[in-house]
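FAQ

Q: What does a record look like?
A: Structure on top, sequence underneath. For example:
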């Protein structure tokens, strides 16, 4: 059985906001892959000629022929990689929720899927599809030597002509290409391939890539790309195209900020483009020059004759930051515990050219002194969607003085961007203290 499967270690966050200041060591989740459900169709009456397939590509998870790819919660634990996916619409059955864990060196998915409208919970056990698993997976390009038919009992001379990559507990990947070379790398996300199968087959090649040259942090920007199949056979869908965000001009170890599923096959010589059709969110990073890459078939779902030409870039992008600062704060002279008071405040984006893209939270505290500290009481938090450059927004908020507050005299302290959701040019001017006090009884 000939097949090329590449498992790529690390973390992918489709649309995730990850910046240089978020360098925290974490357990890497299992790499993405194609998991075959071996105990029959997920739904009664399904096609039993091919096993159902759970496709995991970073945080995008789908069930082939049933549920389109959705961004999922993918969390690495010491027991394995836990996945929770909420599908808003599965073919013929509506909403579904799938929960499970990938264990046994990232080779086995165990869990269940609940179909809301059917009041049905279906247990799931799926195994990673790779050469030699005894399951014929024609959609991934598996075939038998000598054209002896499907794998299993009908084919006794199957072999791996491509590469198989396994993941060790340390997060290091080791790739072995039969008849080729062996290499080891430690990427931080699923964006690079470490193997090259023999020539022939499909060959996806990016031939165009465009993106905005300047954008504020958190902003959505339009990107465009064109992909050609310069191989000799059809590239069989689905596969995933990645937009990658990098701090340097070296491809690899980058952050996926966009993952787009390709659902249609691409014949030899054919091409497709998504110019102007896709947007990605600029990560929440400090102002500076960063770089964008495009990678087609980012999860290595397509068996290709050349795996080294799937990416292009970089395109430099200048990320800019806004600057939020409170300019006014008005409070009542008195208030009563367990009752509401009205607080009016104004926030200005001091940047003359850069809009602030949310969300962020404006926070209000009760404080016995004029200094924001750990002992102060949070009495309100209000999400804000954004504000234009050199623009002020003014709000009146109703907040309740909580029961645990001791009667006395208090200041109210306003802190904008209270959870540091937004990188700013000046992080020291986000707090304003009321000029008067309030008597609480």
């Amino acid at each position: 059985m000939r097949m090329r499967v590449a498992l790529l270690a690390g973390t992918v966050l489709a649309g995730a906001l990850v910046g240089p200041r978020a360098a925290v060591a974490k357990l890497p989740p299992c790499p993405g892959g194609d998991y075959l459900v071996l105990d029959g169709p997920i739904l009664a009456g399904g096609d039993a000629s091919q096993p159902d397939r759970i496709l995991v590509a970073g945080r995008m998870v789908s069930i082939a022929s049933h549920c389109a790819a959705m961004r999922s919660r993918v969390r690495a634990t010491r027991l394995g990689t836990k996945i929770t996916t909420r599908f808003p619409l599965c073919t013929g059955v509506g909403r579904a929720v799938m929960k499970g864990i990938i264990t046994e060196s990232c080779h086995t998915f165990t869990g269940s899927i609940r179909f809301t409208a059917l009041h049905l919970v279906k247990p799931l056990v799926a195994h990673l599809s790779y050469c030699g698993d005894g399951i014929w997976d024609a959609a991934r390009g598996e075939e038998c030597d000598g054209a002896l038919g499907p794998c299993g009992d009908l084919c006794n001379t199957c072999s791996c002509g491509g590469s198989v990559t396994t993941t060790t507990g340390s997060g290091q990947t080791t790739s072995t290409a039969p008849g080729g070379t062996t290499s080891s790398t430690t990427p931080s996300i699923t964006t690079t391939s470490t193997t090259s199968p023999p020539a022939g087959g499909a060959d996806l090649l990016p031939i165009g890539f465009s993106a905005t040259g300047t954008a504020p942090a958190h902003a959505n920007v339009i990107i465009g790309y064109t992909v050609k199949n310069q191989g000799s056979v059809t590239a069989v869908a689905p596969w995933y195209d990645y937009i990658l965000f990098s701090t340097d001009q070296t491809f690899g170890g980058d952050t996926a900020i966009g993952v787009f599923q390709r659902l249609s096959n691409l014949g030899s010589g054919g091409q497709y483009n998504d110019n102007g059709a896709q947007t990605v969110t600029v990560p929440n990073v400090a102002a500076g020059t960063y770089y964008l890459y495009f990678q087609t078939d980012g999860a290595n779902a397509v068996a290709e004759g050349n795996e080294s030409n799937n990416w292009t870039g970089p395109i430099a992008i200048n990320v800019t930051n806004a600057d939020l600062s409170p300019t006014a704060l008005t409070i009542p002279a008195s208030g009563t515990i367990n009752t509401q008071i009205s607080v009016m405040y104004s926030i200005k984006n001091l940047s003359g050219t850069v809009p602030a893209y949310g969300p962020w939270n404006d926070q209000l505290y009760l404080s016995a002194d004029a200094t924001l500290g750990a002992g102060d009481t949070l009495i309100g938090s209000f999400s804000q969607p954004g504000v234009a450059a050199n623009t002020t927004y003014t709000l009146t908020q109703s907040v309740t003085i909580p029961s645990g507050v001791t009667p006395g005299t208090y200041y109210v302290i306003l802190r904008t961007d209270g959870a540091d959701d937004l990188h700013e040019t000046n992080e020291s001017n986000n707090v304003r203290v009321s000029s008067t006090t309030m008597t609480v009884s």
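Q: Is there anything notable about this one?
A: Confidence is low (pLDDT under 50) at residues 1-26, 131-199.
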